[in-house]
């Protein structure tokens, strides 16, 4: 038999929760607009350039963005606060400097962008260290596979969390080793740092750097696990990664590759829908900066 009293009680709980979250949502949205009205106005005026390949972006494409912003409708709070509020300032600043078509940046552009990133993230971001640099700092990124971390590592042993296994198992493991072979000598010797380096690695064409072929050993040591800041300029998402492999080949049409975890956070995809990222060196001689997703500090 259907319990009418129980149904009535559930309705009251539903409305109570609804009212509570509606009030919280309104407070968060008002706070966002108070802090970043100017930046969000810019987003409104440049909506076509800011659409990215995610479900949220698809919804934006189906709804005109200007009335969406002015009306301040409900959006998932975790996305709104962690992405829009924190990174809203960064998107228009980079948008003013980046070319409409992906190309190699000139030194003046690199210097201005490096200055913005340094101020935004609170650590030194540069295009060159000790006169060494990559062939470019702005390019199209494609997805790489997982790399073997130690001899005998397999997809079955690769994940310690079920959530990560569910999300990233399908990407598979590369048939070959990374440019510097394994990250650890054995499973027993593998450290948390080794795990994070493989999880958040990028592949860049180190072999295209000036003077690389005449100084292979020196440049190999320099690039090995070098920390880099990688940013999707269209949504402001950023991540601290390491150079964990060399590639991709020039004929692929991609300028660098990212681990499945890197690509997921940046909301970048492979194939015909691949998009550009900025990637600059991080000066961190004392190894104080953690790997993984990062937000701006100002």
Question: What does this molecule look like?
Answer:
This protein is of the alpha+beta class. It has 2 domains: 4-88, no CATH class; 94-294, Barwin-like endoglucanases (Beta Barrel), CATH 2.40.40. The protein is 41% helix and 13% strand. The chain has helices at residues 4-45, 47-50, 55-61, 65-71, 77-87, 90-95, 107-121, 162-168, 192-199, 216-223, 260-266, and strands at residues 125-126, 138-143, 201-204, 227-231, 238-246, 256-258, 276-282, 292-294. It has a 6-stranded mixed beta barrel with strand order 2-6-3-5-4-7. A hairpin with a 6-residue loop joins strand 4 (227-231) and strand 5. Helix 1 (4-45) packs parallel to helix 5 (77-87). Mean pLDDT is 81; it is low at 4-8 and 47-81.
The strand count comes to 8
Which residues sit in consecutive blocks of at least 5 with pLDDT less than 50?
Answer: 4-8, 47-81
CATH class category label of the largest domain? Mainly Beta
Write out the strand line-up for the largest beta sheet, numbering strands in chain order: 2-6-3-5-4-7
Total domain modules: 2
Sequence-ordered SSE layout with sheet pairings:
Layout: H1 4-45, H2 47-50, H3 55-61, H4 65-71, H5 77-87, H6 90-95, H7 107-121, E1 125-126, E2 138-143, H8 162-168, H9 192-199, E3 201-204, H10 216-223, E4 227-231, E5 238-246, E6 256-258, H11 260-266, E7 276-282, E8 292-294
Parallel strand pairs: 2-6, 3-5
Antiparallel strand pairs: 1-7, 2-7, 3-6, 4-5, 4-7, 5-8
Helix pairs in contact: 1-5
